[in-house]
Write a structure and sequence with these properties.
The chain is α/β, with parallel strands linked by helices. It is built from 19 helices and 10 strands. It has 2 domains: 307 residues, ABC transporter transmembrane region fold (Up-down Bundle); 243 residues, 3-Layer(aba) Sandwich (Rossmann fold), CATH 3.40.50.300. The strands form 2 sheets. Strands 6-7-8-3-9-10 form a 6-stranded mixed sheet, with helices on both faces. It has a 4-stranded antiparallel sheet with strand order 2-1-4-5, with helices on one face. Bound molecules: adenosine-5'-diphosphate and magnesium ion. The site of adenosine-5'-diphosphate has 13 residues, from α11.
Length: 571
């Protein structure tokens, strides 16, 4: 509705042009009637015939002009509406939180902004136009026909209710089948997307065949359901034509007899037939328009379902001013992902003060979960997380996040220049600042050695970077933000030991006064940490300095021994 209001002028003139077309079309049979009647009475002359032909031609020119106008205005409206809706959808989506994106795969969202938006656009553009057109044509043609002979009109229209009822029934079936097809399309899109994302893995594991076969199965299902859909659609149109032919039969027979009896003139009879011809399209259009509306409504429903979702992570009612970050605290924090039985974090408590905090632990022990909760990516209950003693839930979302530089476990780079990637959080940073961040992350020299330096493109169309290079660019991005809290979730795992050592040393000058949380698979970078926690099954199994943990944590001792012997073996 808001968009109909916004563009009402465009719609108003468009529909006016449409009605003008209808009027002109409806007037043509009147001219034909005059010509035929004049012919029958022997009053027609070359001049009068030429005049009537010329009139029809000028109507045709008028029709062409106004048809262009309404298409331009109304179909243009539907495109504007589509754009506005797409913008709204994106602006909603970027507001959503992690739980939302865990629930809704990217493929499903892509289908919304593709197929579904197109359906809404079709329904609001050509759908509405056809509906108004069909309705007006029917109404006007019926009036003109009734003017010629009411009884004959009644006969000609008698088969219409059958059409209306069958269209209604078929539409309901259409709706159901169409929904299924839409859902399958989003599954298909999601599968294709994840296949392309994992293409290297698929090749390395030689799973091409299996992926292809699975895709083929999805495709077959999709085709089968599309055919089931097409069968319903296929019945609609021929059925309308059948009804139209029945009307024609009735008019030919009864109208012919009326003409023979002289009740109506031959001209009237011809005009009547022409009106009936004009009615054929609206009759068929009804089936098609019902179809368009069904699709549009189904799709709009799917879109609005997503748009109505509110992020679980909300702004506090009365936000407190942000404190100077002197500490982060975790109090009896438990966390469970929706749809999971096991707890990802289990009654975890921890006080974090400025300095380096190391986190080690087996995969799945909850390290990333803890990092993401601290980075304020998931909602938590009250009194669980604190920044300088103030509950996370009482602090404004964006400002709290702006205190934290978070490097997620999976490195995310944009298909853009290295500079843009590093400056992502501070697009206005100077070259010197960017180089400084890159130096701290131990990547400056390598970037400078590229042909295009910081302007080198990465990603699909650019350089292929090693995992370690990608990680260090992501680290530089976080360091550039110059924030009091830095959380690095396994962000050095692909960096070689020497470089890693160098990066940790770089931290020395930069660390004082800041909180740095470093999740690591390797023990080496944590040797300098004030404190290391060992996580196990969502809880802290042990904590202390490197030397203390060697005494108290068997897990820590084991990985340390493994890594040092492995290291020695390599040397
Ligand atoms: N997005 C998610 N949805 C559901 N379960 C998850 C999600 N992320 C992690 N988990 C589960 O939570 C537990 C802790 O995972 P995580 O914090 O990633 O561990 P770690 O980083 O230590 O490997 C694991 O059992 C994991 O399977
Ligand atoms: Mg992890």
């Amino acid at each position: 509705m808001p968009y109909f209001k916004k563009y009402w002028q465009r719609l108003f003139w468009g529909i006016l042009a449409l009605l003008t077309v209808d009027l002109l079309q409806l007037y043509i049979p009147r001219v034909i009637k005059q010509a035929v009647d004049a012919l029958q009475l022997g009053q027609a002359t070359s001049a009068s015939l030429l005049g009537q032909g010329g009139l029809i031609l000028s109507f045709a020119i008028g029709i062409a002009f106004f048809r262009f106008t309404w298409r331009y205005l109304v179909l243009g409206f539907s495109r504007l509406l589509e754009r506005d809706l797409r913008n709204l959808l994106l602006s909603r989506l970027v507001r959503m939180d992690r739980p939302f994106f865990n629930r809704r795969p990217a493929g499903e969202i892509m289908a919304l902004s593709g197929n579904d938006l197109t359906n809404v656009q079709m329904a609001c553009g050509i759908g509405i136009v056809s509906f108004i057109d069909a309705f007006m044509m029917t109404a006007a043609a019926v009036v003109f026909m009734a003017y010629i002979h009411p009884g004959l009109t009644f006969l000609a229209l008698a088969p219409m209710p059958v059409l209306a009822i069958s269209t209604g029934l078929l539409s309901a079936m259409l709706h159901k089948r169409y929904k299924l097809v839409q859902e399958q399309f989003s599954d298909l899109t999601e599968f294709a997307r994840s296949t392309l994302m994992a293409i290297r893995l698929i090749k390395a594991y030689t799973q091409e065949q299996r992926q292809t076969e699975h895709f083929d199965r999805l495709g077959k299902d999709f085709v089968r359901n599309n055919i089931r859909l097409a069968m319903v659609q296929g019945i609609l149109t021929p059925f309308s034509t059948l009804i139209a032919s029945t009307s024609l039969l009735l008019v030919l027979y009864f109208g012919g007899r009326l003409t023979i009896a002289g009740t109506i003139s031959i001209g009237d009879f011809v005009a009547f037939m022409t009106y009936l011809g004009l009615l054929t399209w609206p009759m068929m259009a009804m089936g098609w328009v019902a179809n368009l509306f069904q699709r549009g409504v189904t799709s709009l429903y799917r879109i609005s379902k997503v748009m109505e979702e509110e992020p679980l992570l909300r702004e506090p009612q009365n936000p407190l001013p942000l404190p100077v970050v002197t500490s982060l605290s975790v109090r009896n924090l438990s966390f469970q992902y929706s749809g999971r039985k096991a707890m990802a974090l289990n009654d975890l408590s921890l006080d974090i003060s400025p300095g380096l905090l190391g986190i080690v632990g087996r995969t799945g022990s909850g390290k990333s979960t803890l990092c993401q909760l601290l980075a304020r990516l998931y909602p938590v209950p009250d009194d669980r997380l604190f920044m300088a003693g103030i509950d996370y839930n009482q602090l404004p979302l964006a400002e709290l996040r702006e205190k934290i530089a978070y490097v997620p476990q999976e490195t995310i780079l944009f298909s853009d220049t290295i500079r843009t990637n590093i400056a992502f959080g501070r697009p206005d940073a100077s070259d010197a600042e960017i180089a400084q961040a890159a130096r701290a992350a131990g990547i400056h020299e390598e970037i400078a050695a590229f042909k295009d330096g910081y302007q080198s493109l990465v990603g699909e169309k650019g350089l292929l970077l090693s995992g370690g290079q990608r990680q260090r660019i992501a680290l530089a991005r976080a360091l550039l933000l110059d924030r009091p809290v830095v959380i690095i979730d396994d962000g050095l795992s692909a960096v070689d030991t020497d470089t890693e050592h160098q990066i940790i040393k770089n931290f020395d000058s930069w660390l004082p006064g800041r909180i740095c949380i470093l999740v690591s698979h390797r023990v080496a970078p944590l040797l300098a940490a004030e404190r290391i926690i060992v996580m196990e099954k969502g809880s802290i199994a042990a904590q202390g300095s490197h030397l203390q943990l060697l005494e108290t944590s068997p897990f820590y001792r084991t990985i340390y021994q493994h890594q040092t012997t492995a290291g020695e073996a390599k040397v």
